[in-house]
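Whiteboard transcription, Tuesday session. T.W. wrote the structure tokens on the left side:
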């Protein structure tokens, strides 16, 4: 098995798996969170956020390695290079949203520093931006598949 194939598999499977994990968080946990009162949600999030946080690197790191390695492997092929670069940009956009909004908001939820009257609005924004992260993850996976396709 070539290094190029290993990078390609990591890129595609990582991005698709990452997107799937984010879908579960958004659809399953998001619906559950919305069903809770603000105080109960903050208690739940404070007690359980570590379970979500520890799964993200399992997907994000192999995806990044795969995309960077695939971009490096296909650098001389202009059409593949453009697709790998676009997929990497999608992953970077996903990471930027995470760093700029989700991580600080998660910390505020964990610390229970979000005023109870603001929890619903903050959670709605969290879920809306999470949808953008899902879209970027899906785009990265699709772009990676297309980049692997011959011709």
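and on the right, the sequence the group agreed on:
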């Amino acid at each position: 098995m070539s290094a190029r194939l290993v990078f390609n598999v990591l890129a595609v499977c990582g991005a698709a798996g990452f997107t799937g994990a984010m879908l579960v968080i958004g659809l399953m946990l998001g619906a559950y969170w919305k069903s809770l009162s603000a105080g109960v949600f903050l208690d739940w999030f404070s007690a359980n956020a570590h379970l979500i946080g520890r799964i993200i690197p399992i997907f994000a790191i192999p995806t990044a390695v795969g995309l960077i390695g695939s971009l490096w492997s296909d650098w001389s092929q202009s059409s593949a290079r453009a697709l790998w670069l676009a997929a990497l940009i999608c992953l970077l956009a996903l990471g930027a949203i995470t760093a700029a909004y989700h991580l600080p908001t998660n910390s505020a939820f964990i610390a229970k520093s979000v005023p109870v009257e603001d929890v619903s609005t903050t959670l709605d924004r969290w879920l809306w931006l999470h949808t953008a992260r899902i879209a970027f993850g899906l785009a990265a996976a699709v772009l990676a598949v297309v980049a692997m396709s011959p011709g």
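Someone added at the bottom: The chain has a mean pLDDT of 96.
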